[in-house]
Design a protein that fits this description.
The chain is mainly alpha-helical. It has two domains: 57 residues, no CATH class; 217 residues, MetI-like (MetI-like fold). α7 runs antiparallel to α9. The two termini are 22 Å apart.
Amino acid sequence: MTVTASAEEAATAPRRRDKSRPGGPRGARVGYGLLGVAVLLVGWHLAAVLELGGGLTPTPWTVATTLWTRLTEHNLVFDVRVSVTRVLIGVAIGCFAALPVGFLLAWYPRLRAMFEPLVNFFRALPPIALIPLVIAYFGIGEAARVSILVYASFFAAVVVLYEGIAGIDPLFVRAARVLGANSWEVFVKTVVPASIPHFFTALRVALGVSWATVVAAELIAAERGLGAVIQDAGAFFNIPVVYVGIVMIGVCALVMDYVLKLIQRRTTRWQEKTSR
């Protein structure tokens, strides 16, 4: 028994040290991520110096100085806040509307067979193609811009949800029924907890789709927002400001996705413990 215990401790000790060490898996991921950013910046700088974009590509330093100018003199923070607010509202409404639809499509195969083609049909429609209809129905106010983001978030989240929930291991459901659980208890105590990771995945996918759609949404007579910044700069052929808007959209999406991953890790920690 002592030899076995010692062997188990020896096998798990390096694993523990790797997790706590700065050069462990998490540190390595951060390092590789920074390396990827460095490679991108070097490639970007070379493209600007060699004039691969017809001499129109600004250097990273030019974009950085333009970003600082927009932050200090043109209130770019307000544009970021406006776009972030629109995306959060669109994702929240779209995902929470998609939640019951995803459960229904996953739980009832006949409903899924009936409505899955329609979901895929509307999911394939680019939101920018709906702008004339949105203007006709909602006008050119904030409701029109948010509705575009709700549309994009809803169909992206529905697909992730019903695919994930339908793929839950049936063994869990059978085990709950063997233990005497009725259909409602199976749903609440087995299906809902097992679907939490899929809900976070749907949120992350919807978030990415919404940020990809925010420029199209802000085509609807938006005066402020990152999409409006890009459109105004493009109208005056101000290429560095266009790059600033693009970079800020990417940074905002990256930060929000990272926050969601942290929340998911804390929320689903119990699943990691039970899977060991």
